[in-house]
Amino acid sequence: MNNNQISLAKETKKLLKKYDLILNHNLGQNFLIDDAKRNQIIDFGNINSNDTILEIGPGIGTLTLKMAKKAKKVICIEKDKKVLNILNKRIEDNSIDNIEIINDDALKVDFPRFDKVISNLPYQISSPITFKLLNYPFKFGVLMYQKEFAYRMLSNVGERNYSRLSAMLHFKVDIELLTKVPAECFMPKPKIDSAVVKLTPNNKIKDKELFKNYEKVCKALFQHKNKKAENSIINSRHELGYTDKKELKTDIKNLNSENLDKLLEKRVISLSPEEILEITKLLSDIL
Ligand code: SAH
Q: Which ligand 1 atom sits nearest the alpha carbon of residue 122?
C-alpha cells in the first residue's frame, strides 16, 4: 500500500464512520480508495471548463468533488439516498456550486445533455447502462468496469473473450483499455479486479432499424456461440419471431442467397461483426 492509498482510504473510512454508513453490496458499493488511480481516471477525462460531465453512481463523491473543480458542471445520478446525504454534506462543506444531483435509478431516468461520461460504475448494471449511454450523443466516456467485462468489450473476433458484447459494441464505439485497477483499490475490497476503458462513439451504423436487426441477430447467434451459425439461429428462432423450426429453415432457403448460406456455415465464434452485419442484411426480409 502506498501513501496515497492510505490517505484516501483513511478519509473514506472516516467519512463512513462519521455518517454511520453501512455499504450496500447489492448496489455495488465499493468505493475507490486509491488516490493515484483517482487522479489517473480524472486525467484520462481531460476535463476542461466547458465540459458538462455525467457521472453514474458517484457514491460519496470520490471522483465527483475533484471533477467539479475542473468542469463547468458535474451531473451525477445516484440511487442511494443514504450515500447522497454524505455527498450533499461534502458539497456543502466545500462550497461547491456546480454539482447537480439526480436521486434516481440511472437505468430509469432520462439523461440530461452531457459532453463526457466519467464514472466508476455500479457493476451489476454494466451492460444495460452502457447500451443506454450509447443512445445519447457525447464526446467520450472514461468508465470503470469489472475487468472481465472490460475484456469482453475489447475483444476482436478470434480472441478468447470475443462475445455478443464485443460484436454489439463494434458498430457503436471504439474501445480502448486505459488502465487496470486491482481489487485493493476499493473499499470494501471486492472479489474481482477492475479496468478503466475509454469509449468513443463511432456511429458506424446510423440506420436504427438496421442496428435493431443486428442486435436481434447477435442475440440469436451468441446463444450458441460454438455452433454453426445456421443451427444457432434456428435454435434461437424465437429471437427472430419464429416458433416453428421448419418455417424458418424454409424461409432462409427461399432467400436463395449463396453468400448467406456460406456465412451460415461458419461457427458463430468465428464470425466477425462485419460478417454478422452482412448476415443481418441478407436476412432482413424475414426479420
Ligand atoms: N463512484 C464512487 C462509487 C462507486 S460504487 C467511487 O468510485 O467511489 C457504485 C455507486 O453506484 C454506489 O454509490 C451505488 O449506490 C450507486 N448505484 C448502484 N446502482 C445504481 C443505479 N441503478 N443508479 C444510480 N446509482 C446506482
A: 9
> Which residue's CA is the closest to the ligand 1 atom numbered 10?
57
**In whole angstroms, what is the distance from residue 175 CA to residue 133 CA?**
14
pTM surpassing 0.85?
yes
Residues 270 and 137 placed together within one structural domain of the fold: no
Domain count along the chain? 2
DSSP for residue 139: S
Distance CA 14, CA 28 (A): 20
Distance 137 CA to ligand 1 centre (A): 22
What's the domain range around 8? 3-201
Would you call 215 exposed, middle or buried from its count of C-beta atoms within 10 A (0-12, 13-18, 19+)?
middle
Q: In this structure, are 7 and 137 located in the same domain?
A: yes
pLDDT tens-digit profile of 150-179? 999 999 999 999 999 999 999 999 999 999
Which residue has the CA at smallest separation from atom 5 of ligand 1? 29
Instruction: Tell the residue nearest (CA) to atom 13 of ligand 1.
Output: 59
- 5-60: pLDDT as tens digits: 569 999 999 999 999 998 888 999 999 999 999 999 999 999 999 999 999 999 99
185 and 231 inside one domain: no
pLDDT in tens, 101-133: 999 999 999 999 999 999 999 999 999 999 999
